[in-house]
Design a protein that fits this description.
CATH architecture of the largest domain: Orthogonal Bundle
Largest sheet: 3 strands, antiparallel
Structural class: mainly alpha
CATH topology of the largest domain: hpI Integrase, Chain A
Shape: globular
Strand content: under 5%
Helix content: 55-70%
CATH class of the largest domain: Mainly Alpha
Number of helices: 12
Number of strands: 3
Number of domains: 2
CATH superfamily of the largest domain: Intergrase catalytic core
Order of helices and strands: HHHHHHHEEEHHHHH
Strand order of the largest sheet: 1-2-3
Radius of gyration: 22 Å
Length: 293
Amino acid sequence: MEEQIREFLDALQNDKGYAPNTIDAYRNDLTQFLNFALNERAQLAQWSRVDKPLLLSFLIHLKDREYTASSVSRKVAVLKTFFHFMVERNYLAEDPTATLDSPRVEKQPPQVLTPDEVERIVAAPLSNGTPKGLRDRAMLELLCATGMRVSELVALNVDDVNAQNGTVHCLGTGAKRRVLPVEAGALDALTDYLRRGRPAFAVDADERALFVNPHGERLTRQGVWLIIKEYVKEAKIAMPVTPHTLRHSFAVHLLRRGVDLQNAQHILGHTNITTTQVYARLVERRALVVRNG
């Protein structure tokens, strides 16, 4: 059963070009379900023995543990994709998830920081002239100036930064690369970090990661999240802020500056323009509120 999960994940990566973090999420969800299924039915030895009652028991299990509707919905989607694959490969005659419904998810508009709040977060590391402070300032400046995903940020290598052209090469979802312009402030912070900060961390001369930890290893997504949390607290911002909050804020501020939807879609790396339109509607609603006073 585990081997078939591995085969499924390999197909997602090799045939569909899914990003590594997406593959990890699929692996975690399928492993969670498999562990639950084996605990419920100790003799379970093949996927053909999984039926709808077992799947419903898993959903109840998640609800009892207070998983959000969006988390449960994502796990159902993963299971549906996996079992569709199993039928497609003739491992199963029928798909047990065919009539399995996802919980209804009420979509909440993305939370957005004000320009002043963004500036306070970005300015927070300025009081710290250590290599860590230089790295964190460069990292926050880059996130807020480009709107890139945290997975894209940690995947950056030194060679991806072109200081002469003022651009950074970013590897997005589906292994698609895009070139993003970097504003002067962020470029100055990056240059300063590369000159005075990174050399203090880069133990291995062959390490190409742009953002590294004190051990000289590539920063992780979790590491970036904790760093942002630290400076949000220092900036005295009460609302929860994640790396994606910075991306949401960039998207809204980008559209407020008059950038058209197609260009915004490219800069943000959205596969579908409907994702970009979510931010456009948010900008329109806020403008309407301001006009109506």
